[in-house]
Structure formats: C-alpha cells, structure tokens
Amino acid sequence: MLMGKTVLVVDDSPTVRKFVSVSLEMQGFSVTSACDGMDALEKLPRKRYDLVITDLNMPNMDGFALIRSLRENADFKELPVIILTSLSDQANKEEGTKLGITSYVVKPFSLEKIQYEVSKYISWAD
Amino acid sequence: MSDDMFRQFRDLIYQQTGIYFLDNKKYLLEGRLAKRVQVLNLVDFDSYYQLVKFGTRRLEELPHLYNAITINETFFFRNEPQFEAFERTLVPQILASRRNETQRPLRVWSAASSSGEEAYTLAMIYFERLKPLYPWLNIEIVGTDISHGVLEIARQGVYREYSVRNMPKEYLDKYFQRDGVRYHLDSRVRSVVRFDHLNLFDRPRMRLMSRFDVVFCANVLIYFDTKSKIQVVSDLYDAMNPGGFLFIGYAESLHGISSAFKLINFPKTVAYKKE
Amino acid sequence: MREKAMEEIKQYIATLLSSDDPASRRRAAEELSESTGFAPIAALAAALRDENQGVRDAATRSLSSIGTKNVARAVVEYLADDNITTRNLAASLLMHLKDESTEALLPYMYDRDHNVRKFVVDIVGMNGTREAAPHLVKLLQDPDENVVISTVEALGNVGSAEAVAALAKTFDRHPYLRATAAEALGKIGGTAANDFLLSTFQRMVKDPASDPLVLYTVIEALGVVGGKATYDALVQSLVSVRGKLRRVLINALVKMGERCGQLEGCATLRKEDLLDAMQDEDVEIQMSAAKGLGLHQDDETTGALLRAVSRTEALDGILLPLLEHRPRVMSVIVEELEARRINPTKEILSLMSRLISKIQYPDIPAEFTKNNGRLLHRAVKVVKESWSEATAETRGVAVDTLFRLDGDQAVEFLGAIARESDPWIRTHVIELLTPLDDPRIPGFIGQFLNDEDEMVRELAASTLELRSARAGLEAQ
Description:
The complex is a heterotrimer. Chain A is of the alpha/beta class. Helices cover about 35% and strands about 20% of the residues of chain A. Chain A has a single domain, classed as 3-Layer(aba) Sandwich (Rossmann fold). Chain A has a 5-stranded parallel β-sheet with strand order 2-1-3-4-5, sandwiched between helices. In chain A, helix 1 crosses helix 5 (about 110-120) and helix 2 (about 35-45) runs parallel beside helix 3 (about 65-70). The two termini of chain A are about 15 Å apart. The model of chain B has no long low-confidence stretch (mean pLDDT about 90).
C-alpha cells in the first residue's frame, strides 16, 4: 500500500476530518482520524505517526490537554503538532507556543493551506 | 437451542452478571450449557432455564452456570508491556509519592483473575524486580473472579506447559518446581496473593473493594455492554487510591465509558491514572 | 418519607459543594443522579468546574442521566466559560441532551461572541435539530466566516430542504465554503440540490484550476443523491479526472447504479479503473469497486477479488458472497494459494468449505471432475501446508475444510499431528475437532481414551460426552 508518512487528524467534526484526510491523501500521505483527545491517545500507540493535526474544542479531552499529555511522554515529546482551530485569539496562540506546537492554523482552511502547512514539516516520503 | 431460548438465557445472564452474549455467539452458549443440561440429567434447555430462573436449587446451580460461560484463556506474562510499565514507571512513581509511609503495602488487584496467572506474574515481578530495589516494601495482591472453578485452580498454584509458555526461563527455574508435566509455584509467591470470589457487576460487593494502587482489568470488559461497562469502571475508579493506575486490555478503550481518568501513554500500552 | 428524601438531597448538595474530600464530592454527585429539582441540578452544573476529574466525571454522568430541559438551562451558560475544559463538558452534555437542549440553545445562536455562536451552531447541527433551520438560514449572513461554515455544515446535518436555494447562493461567495456546501447539499438531497451539483461539476471539470477538494465533495455528493440522468452525464467525465478523483467518481457511479436498480449498467466501467479503485484506502470506494468488478466474470478479476479478501470485515461482506457464485472460483483459489499470491486466511478457508458443501451430486461442476479430480488433491495439499503458520482459530477452520475436501486424508493428516510427543498438541487437535460433524470424528477421538497423559484422556472423554449430549438434544 502506501509507503509514506502517516498523519493523525483529531477533530470532533466528521466533515473536518474528512476534508483534512482527503487533502493529505491526495498528496500521498496516509491519514488516521480520531474524534477527540482521548480517542487520539488511545490510537497513538498502535501505529507510527509522523505528525498530529488537532482541533482545540472537543469533548472528552480538548486539544490543549491532548498536547500537554503528548509532551509529558518521552515517545511523543518530539512529535510535530499543528493546531487547526477557529479560535483566533492571541491567548490561545500563546498557549500553543508554550506547549511547543509546530504551527497554529486558523480555520477556515483550504486544501492548499493544509497541504502547505504539513509539507513544511514532513514530505510524503523521505 | 431456539432463538427465543437463546434470548431468554442471554437476558438472564445479563441481569445477573452484566455479561452480554451477542447473536453470533449463540453457538458458544449452546455448547457450554449443553454440558450442564447433561450433567443434571435434564431433557432440554427449557428445563435448565426453569431451574436457574425459578428452581429451588437455583443458587446452587448459578455458580456452575458462571463457570460454564466464562472464557478462561490466560497464561503467565501475557501482557508484557503492561508489566514493564508497572515495574519501571508506575511503582516507582507511586512509592515516590508516599516516601515516609514505608509500612504501607502496595495493593494490586487482578480483576477477572481466572486461574491466577496474571496475579502470580505480578507476585514474581515483585520478588524478582521490586524487592531488591525496595527491601522494605510489602505487597498485597488480590485476584478476583466470578467463577469458583478457576479460583480453586488459582489457589492450588499448579500449572501446565501451556500456561508457562511465555515465561522467561529465569522465572520458571527460580519460582517453580517441575513435576513431570506440571509446574508447582513456590509457596513464597503464593503467600502474597489472595483469591476471592467477586462478580464485577455486584455493586454492594464492589463497594467493599478499596485502596488499590494498581488495578489490572484486561480482557473482561469486552463481555459487557456500554451501560454495564460504565458501572464497572466507575466502581473500579472508586476502589483505587488517588495516584493509582488502571490497565485494561490491549484493544480496549474507555472512550465513552469514563472521563474520570487521565490517560498516560507507555511503550505499546496505555494506563489510566486516577489523579 | 418525602421530608427524609428532601433532607438527604440537601445533604448531598452540601457535600458536593463544600466537602474537602473529592471522593465524598464524587459520591454525592452520583447520588444526585435521579433528582430533577433545580437546586440539585444547579449544584451538579457548578461541579462541572470542580478541580477533581473524578468529580467532574460523576457530575457529567448524573446530569446526562437526569437529561431534562432544566439541565440544559443550567448548563448552557458554561459554553462561554473561560476554561476550555468546562466549555467542552457543557457542549458534550448539551449534545447528549439532544432535543431537550434546543430551547436553551437557540438564543445563544445570536450571542455577541462569535466563538459561542459557532459552538452552539455545531451542537445544534450534530443534534440534527429541525427547529433551528430558520435560524441557521439567517446565520448564513453572519459576519464571521467560521460561523457561516459551521452553519452550512449544520444545515446539511439538519437536512432542511428550505436551505437549498440559500446554500446554492453562498456557494460562490467564499472559496472556503464550497466543499462544505457541496457536502451539505448532498446530505439534504432532492432535485434542486442534484441539479445544482451536476451543473457545478460540469463547469469545474472543464477548468484545470478547480480546487480538487471541492471537486471531490461535489462528486461524492452526487453519488449520494444522483439518479440515472446524473449517471449518464457523469460517466462521460471519467476520462477527464485522475487519481483519487477518478476513484471517487467510480464510487459515485456504482452507488448511483445500485440506487436506480441498474447496477448492471456499470458493466461498461473499465476493469482497469475498477481494479485501481480497489486499491484505495477508503473502504467505501473498495466496496463499490468490488461490486463493479463483480459484473466481470473472468478469472483475472476473480484473482483480484480474492486478493482483496481478509482486509476488512466490511469489504469481505461484499466480496465473499460475490465470489461464491463466480465460475471456476475454486480453481482460481487453489492457483492463487499455490503461487502465494493470497494467504490461507480463515475467510479463504471458510469460502473453500462453503464451495464444497454446495456441490450436489449429480451436478458436479466441471472443474472438480477434470483430470481425475486433481483440483481436490491440490486443494488438500495447500490446506495442509497452511497448518504450521496458522493461528488456532484458522486451524479450526482448516480442519473443517479438510474434512469437507477429503475426510480420509483429514484423519490421516491429523493422526500424524497427534502422534507428536507434546500432549498439548494432542489436546489442541481434540479441541479443534469438537464442533465438527463428520462421522469419522468420534472414532478418531476415541483412540485418545487410552492416551498416556491424564489431561488428554480426560479431554477425550468429556468431548465425547459433550458430542453425544449435543446430538441427543438436536434429535429432539
């Protein structure tokens, strides 16, 4: 099948999950979806992921709690994380920077924007 | 067994134990109950149903019913990533958070312990890995199960090749005495483990379980439906100490079941922490 | 009696709001799960902000369980809380409450804060709240683009036909909106939506600068709503799209064909396109490709279908029934197994069992009688070869298959395995044979009644008892 990089997209909206997945699959990435932070943490050990894209507002475990959990774990400390959210205020952006995220992308997003942001950190095959 | 009969048994078992048989497991239930019908010299499943639902000797028969339907497939060192996380990270963390309380034993619960392999594995890890580092540390391991039959086997501490097939050789040599095809577990190991009968779905009894530092509940939640899982996991949470950890099975999830725990990732496994 | 209950409730509220011990607060929150009065509900809602996760969990469960409009009223203001955890707890509760939360939510669709408006629109959309439709249509004019996009998404989830015209108008207003609008139109359905999507597709497919994500969603939406006329218009465009888009188009065409009861029309779809679509990661596309391939009866296609078995349960649900009815399928299976292009998984072995079981004398298919039944020999050989690598579950199926192919050879094969020195292997063999019906089995198991190992003897005896008990019960 695909021998490229794998991305985990975390968002409670099925539409957003689908759009991000399709945009990245068209570039040759392999994409898995999770519907919130807890679902993401349960899926993470089962495959090797190269990048995580996450929303902030989600039930069961929000985006910041997810990132904090990732940073506390030696296996995921260096995992690139892109926040993809409609929350555009400065406070959230600063919180993201503090937590060591790679990029903060404000919705709405387009196909090109997502592909561009992801490709800054990983290309489809090394 | 007719579909109607299957449904009746399914509901009865669910009410008593929270265990739910899906439609495609009808053949499994049929096979297991057929033996009881035969042993009791009954003529058909209907008579057996009458017996366990309304009969005067139903309380005697119910434990045999539970024995028959629970699936006892386990062996030593079955879930290595969990045992590694336990030994390398969880125990040191728990002990560090109560530095001065050296008298306090570490309490571990193997829920659905079956024939005892998981509980005894933990005991061996204690002797082999923990005691050398923390000589003052005592451990109390409790194994519980709904089936009396397997509890008896667990208490004997005698096993066959099948159960020990995944065990590192140094453990096998050090903690077992071989006797033909049987392996007898040392009394030292057996002494730190206690086995009790417990139905995870029995709330009053579950409320009596308390102050556990680590709970292992692998491969049993899969038999419950969502509503039962929520109840059982809530009771497991209440039975734990703050700072304690819960392990469930590899492919299992608490998503939609409980939001009370903090999820901690380990290599190849996940633990749920009560803060 | 009532006073006592009231007293208890007041006690629990007090404990919940002021005890130092989180375990007590959690217990108190659980105990309030059946109280419908406003005071307990307000206390539970306040506990959503408790610092202890266990307490928040119990409060959430109790509020869910109470599930009334009062809960929604008490919780809705927390949507604007400073703390992100609290906001999200409130949102999931309001979603869980479904219709009961509508009344409390609607005013917040006009909140000053655009983040709150978006949040509420998302909840209302996930709940599929029909009463919200007129408000949602108004919000298509919201100044914030995220609110508008969420509104478009929500209109799709709510399914309001009144919105089709308005959605078609917003389509071109903003590039970001198009994909979401296309998806929403597909979900709403109907002739107007279909016509709009079709004309949009025809326009976009001619423009090389078209956004592929938007084209993707338009094609997918047409797959959901389109009929025969759309099919005919679309099938001509297959050559104009490539890669993922072509696969999505194949998926849409097959779905349309099925929906019109004219799946056979899809026989004109090219085999190469269908084979390519089967490689896609999306299981839905794989399933459509399989259905399309099912219309081609040649061996090459049979091989391709077999190679896709055992990937996912959903796809197997389509493939296995298709394969069972294809010509020469057993021959192709054996060839693929011998060439190691497929693995002897439990699904493949079960398929072989079913194929054999279906044979009824005197209508024996030609492939089995050719060359003195050589096919059966080869089949037995590959099944035997699968043994050492197989899991216990697969072996169970393999034994069943062997007995159906050739009972005598099966007995001989198992006999050889059973002569191994390890008693666990002997018990393993006995367990595998337990559920099977072949008349040779009791005799085979009977030989173990004199086994040197006690465990094997016991298992053999109890298995024979179980089989006769079962046989006795079935005879009734």
